[in-house]
Design goal:
The complex is a heterodimer of chains A (379) and B (226).
Chain A: H1 2-32, E1 37-42, H2 65-72, E2 77-92, E3 95-104, H3 107-112, E4 116-119, E5 133-136, H4 138-145, E6 154-157, E7 160-168, E8 183-186, H5 187-194, E9 201-206, H6 212-226, E10 233-237, H7 238-281, H8 283-291, H9 296-332, H10 342-369, H11 372-376
Parallel strand pairs in A: 3-8, 5-7
Antiparallel strand pairs in A: 1-9, 1-10, 2-3, 2-6, 2-9, 4-7, 5-8, 6-7
Helix pairs in contact in A: 1-7, 1-9, 1-10, 7-9, 7-10, 9-10
Chain B: E1 2-13, E2 16-28, E3 33-37, H1 44-51, E4 59-64, E5 67-68, H2 74-84, E6 85-88, H3 100-104, H4 106-111, H5 115-128, H6 144-156, E7 162-166, H7 174-191, E8 194-198, H8 202-205, E9 210-215, E10 218-223
Parallel strand pairs in B: 3-8, 3-9, 6-7, 7-8
Antiparallel strand pairs in B: 1-2, 1-4, 4-5, 9-10
Helix pairs in contact in B: 5-6, 6-7
Classes of the chains: A alpha+beta (379), B alpha/beta (226).
């Protein structure tokens, strides 16, 4: 029974800890993107959520490279990059891989804070023209080239050829793009390769955090003008995105914590049963105490204190269990920034106390109400 | 000092009402030594429980030193039990995981007496019963007679004015039983205790100055009021 309480408390602590950590992880990931990010996608959504959806019956206007150029003229934005995304077979020297393809411009590197392990990123220049170069991720380089030097080599990407001019540095995941595996080429080339008329999105970096909302409004105004007065784009700022994720994770954390809380209730019921058994076993003792002159309140207090002590002991054991579990998780998954929310620990302890009191009340009252005469002749 | 008037005690057993005590009138003076005797079911134990405020009568009044105690609330009755009444039971009722000294000090613990004073009074109580060298022993390390003596020490530690003994020798052999009865009688004689002994054994009961016989919940005989 003590074990049940411990597991309950440990579960609450560990699960809420995981929830909090997930929030921190997501928040950190977003921060690594740079905090002034604005993402423009074709099509309008009703919510500020992720991803565009088709307006029923209405085909959204294409987002074009010249749209991106128009936006880039605004002084509220430092960098603007048109983006196309898809998948394409990449081959060199008899080896072929299916890799995520990103079509963009030179500005994308700055917006995404990417760095290069070797060579250079895409060149500046007219984005409507394909300069015929590309940049690949470190893992893709390994898989296609092995030990051979990759820079300067010609790759076949889909039905086009491009020359490798840079290798991206290993940076791990970056919200949707695993930098290791991608091939980045000029947006005009990618559009042709993927046979698309329209960009997937335009990403822009506001000049400062304060300017994000004004920049969003400005982008909306520019595009509305260009799209014949239709507001058919979705503009998502990084802030809004983060807020949405955060809301979801908070809800998740509470839900999960609540489920763990149920196990605490189970533990409470177990305490109650154990105490009921204890009361019936100590009936003669209770009768004696009453005969010796213990008032009911005294007996009540005695058993309530016992129940609370039991549940607190279980809670402390549970905290110890939670600490060990956390250390174990950290050992196997050091990537996870496992935080320790104080409020969860306090909540778990308080819940344990309350559970002890509430579920100890019934046995305690039963003990207090025992008829001393009957109790004494019980043994 | 103890006055019972028209005491009734009914028990509900299943769908029947059992009248354990019917119209009991009893007066006990301070310092009296009396025995309650009768066959099984005569109500003698029930009467003792009512005397000791362990049980409430269904009807009638109980006056203790002129004060009506019948309808006092639980806390008040508990207080009286703690300070003015001592119990000795047939089956000793010692707490098995406490030592003799800890058992004996229980009433004082309940009264909130501080530890230093408790220790002194317990030591005295145990000494007067010849148990000083056993004060650190637990009940399972004591003989039957010793256990009952610890129980008596416990009963006396709060210096009550009334001692109620329910079949005190019922669980003891001849010599231990005789020892215990003598001890109780000594206490009565030396401290002017009011002593009530409930017993089915006529030899034990016959030692009292006043002998009350009960049958079917009534007092049939009340002999030798001293």
């Amino acid at each position: 029974m003590l074990l049940a309480m411990s597991i309950g408390v440990a579960a609450v602590v560990v699960l809420t800890s995981l929830g909090e950590s997930a929030r921190t992880y997501v928040s950190d990931e977003f921060s690594s993107l740079g905090t002034h990010l604005i993402v423009v996608s074709p099509g309008r959504t009703e919510t500020s959520g992720v991803g565009p959806s088709m307006f029923a019956g209405d085909t959204p206007r294409d987002l074009t490279i010249s749209d991106a150029l128009a936006i880039a003229r605004s002084p509220l934005l430092t960098d603007v990059a048109p983006m196309v995304m898809g998948q394409a077979p990449v081959s060199w020297g008899g080896r072929e891989r299916d890799a995520p393809l990103v079509g963009a411009t030179a500005t994308l590197r700055r917006i995404r804070h990417w760095s290069l392990a070797q060579g250079r990123f895409l060149p500046d220049g007219d984005p409507e023209r394909d300069s015929g170069v590309c940049v690949i991720g470190a893992k893709l380089r390994r898989e296609l080239f092995g030990a051979t030097r990759a820079l300067g080599e010609w790759l076949k990407v889909g039905d086009r050829r491009c020359r490798v001019t840079g290798i991206l540095a290993d940076e791990g995941r970056s919200i949707g793009l695993d930098v290791e595996e991608i091939v980045v080429m000029p947006v005009a080339g990618a559009l042709a390769l993927l046979n698309r008329p329209s960009l997937n999105r335009i990403v822009a970096s506001a000049s400062s955090h304060r300017q994000i909302d004004r920049a969003s409004t400005e982008i909306r105004r520019i595009l509305k003008e260009r799209h014949q007065g239709e507001e058919d784009v979705t503009i998502v700022t990084q802030d809004a995105l983060l807020a949405t994720f955060d809301r979801i994770l908070v809800a998740l954390t509470y839900t999960v914590g609540g489920i763990a809380g149920i196990s605490l209730i189970v533990a409470g019921i177990l305490i109650m049963n154990v105490m009921l058994v204890s009361v019936s076993q100590r009936t003669a003792e209770i009768g004696l105490l009453k005969a010796l002159g213990a008032p009911r309140e005294e007996i009540l207090r005695l058993f309530l204190v016992e129940a609370t002590a039991l549940s607190l002991a279980g809670a402390l054991a549970g905290l110890a269990l939670g600490v060990s579990a956390r250390l174990a998780i950290l050992h196997f998954y050091p990537v996870l920034p496992l935080t320790w929310p104080i409020w969860a620990i306090v909540a778990a302890l308080i819940t344990a106390l309350v559970v002890g009191l509430v579920f100890g009340m019934i046995p305690a009252r039963r003990a207090a109400e025992l008829d001393p005469v009957a109790a004494l002749s019980h043994h | 000092m103890i006055e019972l008037r028209g005491i009734e005690r009914d028990f509900v057993v299943g769908d029947q009402i059992v009248r354990a005590l019917r119209e009991v009138d009893l007066e006990i003076h301070e310092g009296e030594y009396l025995s309650l005797m009768g066959p099984s079911g005569s109500g003698k134990s029930t009467l003792m429980h009512i005397l000791g405020l362990l049980d409430r009568p269904t009807g009638g009044t109980y006056l203790l030193s002129g004060r009506e105690v019948t309808d006092l609330d639980d806390a008040a009755q508990a207080a009286i039990r703690r300070t003015r009444i001592g119990f000795v039971f047939q089956f000793f009722h010692l707490v098995p995981y406490l030592t003799a000294a800890e058992n004996a000090e229980l009433p004082l613990v309940l009264s909130g007496v501080d530890p230093a004073e408790r220790r002194a009074r317990v030591a005295e109580s145990l000494a007067s019963l010849g148990l000083s060298d056993r004060s650190g022993h637990r009940p399972d390390q004591l003989s039957g007679g010793q256990r009952q003596r610890v129980a008596i020490a416990r009963a006396m530690v709060a210096a009550p004015s009334v001692l109620l003994a329910d079949e005190p020798t019922g669980n003891l052999d001849q010599s231990s039983g005789s020892e215990v009865i003598h001890l109780i009688e000594d206490l009565h004689a030396s401290r002017g205790l009011t002593l009530v002994v409930v017993t089915h054994d006529p030899e034990v009961g016959g030692r009292a100055q006043r002998q009350i016989h009960m049958i079917d919940g009534r007092i049939r005989e009340d002999g030798g009021a001293a």
